[in-house]
Design brief:
OB fold (Dihydrolipoamide Acetyltransferase, E2P), about 140 residues, about 10% helix, mainly beta, six-stranded mixed sheet, globular
């Protein structure tokens, strides 16, 4: 059994592994920064530190961020580095068995699948997302 936070990113529900989460907070002002990652909204100030803000729905869709920010952010820590994931809503903390991602599934950022009452949802591979940001030159 794994514990995770269910968030809504666009029309999708996604699980975020609880072991990487710090808190859900209101997204403050963001400042744009140059990046090769179109889903990167910019950086924001959280608890005395500048933290990258990645729009989760845009990342999952392979698209740029929408013009308007959602206002909700999940602060994560992976490998000692902080990252804010901009989401539409943080819904609930849930515990469930994980299911391996089928080879034919096109779920680029999924570490596993989890069964929710609404259906299957990907459990996000946060270390892979953080590594991707490192590759695009974002230092935290």
């Amino acid at each position: 059994m794994r514990e995770f936070l269910v968030v809504r990113a666009g029309e999708r529900r996604v699980g975020l592994p609880i072991e990487h989460l710090v808190e859900v907070l209101e997204l403050g002002d963001t400042r744009p920064v140059p990046s090769l990652e179109p889903a990167l909204r910019g950086v924001t100030h959280v608890r005395g530190r500048m933290v990258p803000v990645l729009h989760l729905g845009a990342l999952l869709a392979g698209a740029p961020c929408p013009a308007e920010a959602s206002g909700t952010c999940v602060l994560t820590v992976v490998g000692g580095r902080r990252l804010c994931l901009e989401v539409d809503d943080a819904e609930s903390v849930t515990r469930a068995e994980t299911i391996a991602v089928p080879p034919e599934a096109a779920l680029a950022w999924a570490a596993a699948l989890v069964r929710l009452p609404e259906g299957m949802a990907p459990l996000l591979d946060l270390p892979a997302v953080a590594a991707r940001l490192m590759e695009t030159g974002i230092e935290r």
